[in-house]
Amino acid sequence: MKNIVLTGFMGTGKTTVGRLLAERLGFGFVDTDELIVWRDGRTIPDIFAQEGEAYFRQLETAVALELAAQSNLVIATGGRLMLDEVNARALERHGRVFCLTATPDAILARVQNEGRRPLLHVPDPAAQIERLLAERREGYGRYPQIETTGKTAETVVEEIKMMIREEREGYEGA
């Protein structure tokens, strides 16, 4: 069966929703950021600090191409992974992509105390979120949008399952 890919900005619930969706569908679950950290042995902030963003993006592409060759997975991507054309083409070919969204206030509330978001290590993280969302709007807009603000993970999972059922593209368990 095809994969289900959850993309979107940080803090929109991709990992939380992805784990639950995989469980409900009987699929495997992979968070691309978690896989990179596990394989590299360093945190994302450490990779950024020691190697730079370009190196991290190379790791993302390697993971995207690898996962695209597999099936029966729910894949939660890093926030920029699907904005790269190579990554997007590979994962779109072998999966159904959904973009999770949330309001800037909800995103900030969800991630502000984590300390593991290198792109938010700035004096005004709220303004940074607004700026990055504006930059990514077109790329994220290529995929069906599912708002997560004020919703439980269970509610979002049910919305995704309903969309999958409606499409009937070979998913079992939806």
Question: Tags for this entry?
Answer:
single chain; 174 residues; alpha/beta; Rossmann fold; 8 helices; 53% helix
- With strands numbered from the N-terminus, the spatial order across the biggest sheet is 2-3-1-4-5
Listing every helix as H and every strand as E from the N terminus to the C terminus, the arrangement reads EHEHHHEHEHHEH
Helical fraction equals 40-55%
Number of strands: 5
- What average pLDDT do the residues reach? 91
What is the distance, rounded to the nearest whole angstrom, between the alpha carbons of the first and last residues? 12 Å
Low-confidence stretches: none
Number of helices: 8
Q: How many domains in all?
A: 1
Second rung of CATH, namely the architecture:
3-Layer(aba) Sandwich
Largest sheet: 5 strands, parallel
- Could you tell me the CATH topology label: Rossmann fold
Overview in brief:
This protein has helices at 14-25, 32-40, 44-51, 53-68, 85-93, 104-111, 125-140, 153-167, and strands at 3-8, 28-31, 73-76, 95-101, 145-147.
What features would you describe in this structure?
The longest helix has 16 residues. 33% of the residues are buried. Helix 2 crosses helix 4. The chain has 174 residues and is of the alpha/beta class. The model has no long low-confidence stretch (mean pLDDT 91). It has one domain: 3-Layer(aba) Sandwich (Rossmann fold). The radius of gyration is 15 Å and the shape is globular. It contains 8 helices and 5 strands.
Layout of helices and strands:
Layout: E1 3-8, H1 14-25, E2 28-31, H2 32-40, H3 44-51, H4 53-68, E3 73-76, H5 85-93, E4 95-101, H6 104-111, H7 125-140, E5 145-147, H8 153-167
